[in-house]
Amino acid sequence: MINWLAFGSGVIAAFVLGFVIYGPFLGLQRRWAEGTRISPEPPEKLPAGPMLAQIIALSLLALVIAITETTGALGAAMVAILAVAAQTASVGAWAKKSGFAIGVDVGYALLSGAVMIIAHAAL
Question: Known Pfam families for this protein (predicted)?
Fold first, then answer.
């Protein structure tokens, strides 16, 4: 049976992690934005569409991890996380992002998956 508390906690923790990584907290925001070729200035209002898409993507990854947790297939979860990271790198390269921006995006994908696995281990 899926641990819905771990699922939800993993999604929320990964989403908050995104605020930490892409926000002003770590000092990566300006360099990442420049490497992504977007304005480094924070938007006037939150970008609802991209944020919704991010929540959906995180929820789908968390669901894969939750399902693999019920069957003891942690290896499959790790492959799914690596697939997300590889796809992120590919899209970033096609969009001609800087290596730094791609690295931040890939790091976020990997850390999000790790946070979700940790949520299942802890709860």
Answer: DUF1761 (PF08570)
